[in-house]
Amino acid sequence: MDDNTGPSRRPTLGDRRKERIDALATAGTVVDEPGKSLLRSAWERLRRDPVFLVGAAITLVFVVLAIISPWIAPWDVTANPLIDKVRPQSNPVPGPEPGHLLGADDRGRDLFSRLLVGSRQTLVVGVFATLLGLLGGITLGALAGAIGGFVDTVVMRIVDVMLSFPALLLAFTIASLAREPSQWTLIIAIATTQVPIFARLLRGSMLAQRSSDHVLAARSLGVRPRAIVFRHMLPNAMGPVIVQATLSLATAIIEAAALSFLGLGNPDQRQPEWGQMLGLAQRYISEAPHLAFYPAGCIIVVALGFTLMGESLREALDPKSRR
Amino acid sequence: MTQATQHSSRPGAGSSEPLLSVRDLRVTFQRQGEEEFHAVDGVSFDVRPGQTVGLVGESGCGKSVTSLAIMGLLPGRGNRVSGSAIFDGEDLLTLSPSAMRDRRGSEIAMIFQDPLSSLNPVISIGRQVTEVMERHQGLSRKQATPKAADLLERVGIPDPKARLLNYPHQLSGGMRQRALIAMALACNPRLLIADEPTTALDVTIQAQILALLKELVVDTGTALVMITHDLGVVAGLCDEVNVLYGGKVVERGGRHGLFRDPRHPYTVGLLNSIPRLDAARGDKLSPVPGSVADNLPWTAACAFAPRCSNAIDPCTAETPQWEGDQVVGFRCFNPMGGTR
């Protein structure tokens, strides 16, 4: 390793091996700054993960669109500018034309505008259902995992009963109990199907925490039970629940669409929603498949975005893949 | 359990009134449909202020269970604790859970074996140290933070102010154990129980941690119960040693007396199984044969008899009684060595 660094010299096997080892060594060096928590280092990994970036980009685009859609939608979703071109016999669904990117639906309403504005309802239902499910699940799971004993048994049997119904069937049953369907019946119905999943997950990881060394060490220092639960057990047990929540967003959106497709969602067509649009499109599925194609595609892409995000989050938070 | 109560010619330093007095401690584990298991079977020992007492024995001899029972940290179900552990005039075993909580961390603290898993991974070191002071001394986090930095400095952590912001995974093993020691010492406890504090560390760090413990114990006058399987640790640190086997104390003595003149064959076996640099080349180590699993029940035999090279007939016929007092003694029908 002295003067043979000329440009003409071909790298020997030894050189290349060294390079590889050097590369490995630098790759293995963890950049540790004071105050970098596990969450922060997970975030550092996520920032470089292409899967996460794609998922986050998709999600971000749809969230931004949902927020600004009422202002950027070219047409009012309740107006029917193309109603004159609707011919129930020959041309039930007017096709694209200047000013109407995707054409109109069977009532002459601008399809593109309705798709845009429809993202609002869909995302709102998905997010609120997941949040509500999280709230219920965390409460039940933390209760069962922290108190244990009789409370644990009772809570977990209830959870088992809820889990034994197929999710969609349970949501369907609850949604049909409502006197008049609205987006809130959707949200509550879907949240109910998510509660047992979160509860079970959190309870399991709370139990693992309860018998962990650091909880024993905290107890040996006289830390009060409430602080043990909220400071030492819950934060450590939340990882899998957060990941599941991200994945559940996708499920919730799909379930919401399924329920509205079945007519259990908000029937008010002044508030478009992708599942509702899908449901309305089935009458024209042979003449105008694009009516179903666009909302279905949107649902798939959004669900994909959340799933990609959740999967990479799971990997980043997994202690086994750390370092 | 006949124990003479003599307090004379006691080895080690400290005043004469014991700080912690454990008497006939028994811990029985009971699982449904299984036979009872006596993890700790009538252990008695004293710890005086400023004294370092060792509990020595191999895995499964009941030393960790003893410490957890004293701390009131055994899991609530499936076990039964009897006997007494008088600390400062109160029996720790009969205190209410909340009264016990008030004493843990402030009067009695504990250091555990595995420093990484004993720290909360999602909270900074500083927060974990201040938590103890907030809990027991009623300080605000702001008031406790400079004290925490002082503590970290005292246990030999360089750049303590920056380390306060670190998370456990960012510290080395030795640093983590130092941080745990800082947490245990945060409220100046009068008794510190160290449960194999050096087992998870490499040898150089072990020596550092032991030196640190020794220094802190001397500086603060804290009594220390050192739980270990390593007689080397005992030799360097403890004033008094209790050798445990099968949940009973089989031999007790001052460290000098015990190492010079071990009486119980198990103690002899433990001493012989330490590798020595001054042994002749080619000399084989002589480990204690068998394992704890070969134990006989103490009820009608000496539990160590199946593994004992010195066993005689009564060893498998009746329980050996304690010969000696609170300070030195052994439990054996056929002891080794001369008279003490």
From TrEMBL, chain A:
<keyword id="KW-0813">Transport</keyword>
<feature type="transmembrane region" description="Helical">
    <location>
        <begin position="184"/>
        <end position="202"/>
    </location>
</feature>
<keyword id="KW-1003">Cell membrane</keyword>
<feature type="transmembrane region" description="Helical">
    <location>
        <begin position="123"/>
        <end position="151"/>
    </location>
</feature>
<dbReference type="InterPro" id="IPR025966">
    <property type="entry name" value="OppC_N"/>
</dbReference>
<feature type="domain" description="ABC transmembrane type-1">
    <location>
        <begin position="119"/>
        <end position="310"/>
    </location>
</feature>
<dbReference type="InterPro" id="IPR035906">
    <property type="entry name" value="MetI-like_sf"/>
</dbReference>
<dbReference type="Pfam" id="PF12911">
    <property type="entry name" value="OppC_N"/>
</dbReference>
<keyword id="KW-0472">Membrane</keyword>
<dbReference type="InterPro" id="IPR050366">
    <property type="entry name" value="BP-dependent_transpt_permease"/>
</dbReference>
<dbReference type="GO" id="GO:0055085">
    <property type="term" value="P:transmembrane transport"/>
</dbReference>
<feature type="transmembrane region" description="Helical">
    <location>
        <begin position="50"/>
        <end position="72"/>
    </location>
</feature>
<comment type="similarity">
    <text>Belongs to the binding-protein-dependent transport system permease family.</text>
</comment>
<keyword id="KW-0812">Transmembrane</keyword>
<protein>
    <submittedName>
        <fullName>ABC transporter permease</fullName>
    </submittedName>
</protein>
<feature type="transmembrane region" description="Helical">
    <location>
        <begin position="241"/>
        <end position="264"/>
    </location>
</feature>
<dbReference type="GO" id="GO:0005886">
    <property type="term" value="C:plasma membrane"/>
</dbReference>
<dbReference type="InterPro" id="IPR000515">
    <property type="entry name" value="MetI-like"/>
</dbReference>
<dbReference type="Pfam" id="PF00528">
    <property type="entry name" value="BPD_transp_1"/>
</dbReference>
<feature type="transmembrane region" description="Helical">
    <location>
        <begin position="158"/>
        <end position="178"/>
    </location>
</feature>
<feature type="transmembrane region" description="Helical">
    <location>
        <begin position="292"/>
        <end position="313"/>
    </location>
</feature>
<keyword id="KW-1133">Transmembrane helix</keyword>
UniProtKB/TrEMBL annotation, chain B:
<dbReference type="GO" id="GO:0005886">
    <property type="term" value="C:plasma membrane"/>
</dbReference>
<keyword id="KW-0472">Membrane</keyword>
<dbReference type="GO" id="GO:0016887">
    <property type="term" value="F:ATP hydrolysis activity"/>
</dbReference>
<dbReference type="InterPro" id="IPR003439">
    <property type="entry name" value="ABC_transporter-like_ATP-bd"/>
</dbReference>
<dbReference type="InterPro" id="IPR050388">
    <property type="entry name" value="ABC_Ni/Peptide_Import"/>
</dbReference>
<keyword id="KW-1003">Cell membrane</keyword>
<dbReference type="Pfam" id="PF00005">
    <property type="entry name" value="ABC_tran"/>
</dbReference>
<dbReference type="InterPro" id="IPR003593">
    <property type="entry name" value="AAA+_ATPase"/>
</dbReference>
<protein>
    <submittedName>
        <fullName>ABC transporter ATP-binding protein</fullName>
    </submittedName>
</protein>
<keyword id="KW-0547">Nucleotide-binding</keyword>
<dbReference type="InterPro" id="IPR017871">
    <property type="entry name" value="ABC_transporter-like_CS"/>
</dbReference>
<dbReference type="Pfam" id="PF08352">
    <property type="entry name" value="oligo_HPY"/>
</dbReference>
<feature type="domain" description="ABC transporter">
    <location>
        <begin position="22"/>
        <end position="271"/>
    </location>
</feature>
<dbReference type="InterPro" id="IPR027417">
    <property type="entry name" value="P-loop_NTPase"/>
</dbReference>
<dbReference type="GO" id="GO:0005524">
    <property type="term" value="F:ATP binding"/>
</dbReference>
<keyword id="KW-0067">ATP-binding</keyword>
<dbReference type="InterPro" id="IPR013563">
    <property type="entry name" value="Oligopep_ABC_C"/>
</dbReference>
<keyword id="KW-0813">Transport</keyword>
<dbReference type="GO" id="GO:0015833">
    <property type="term" value="P:peptide transport"/>
</dbReference>
<comment type="similarity">
    <text>Belongs to the ABC transporter superfamily.</text>
</comment>
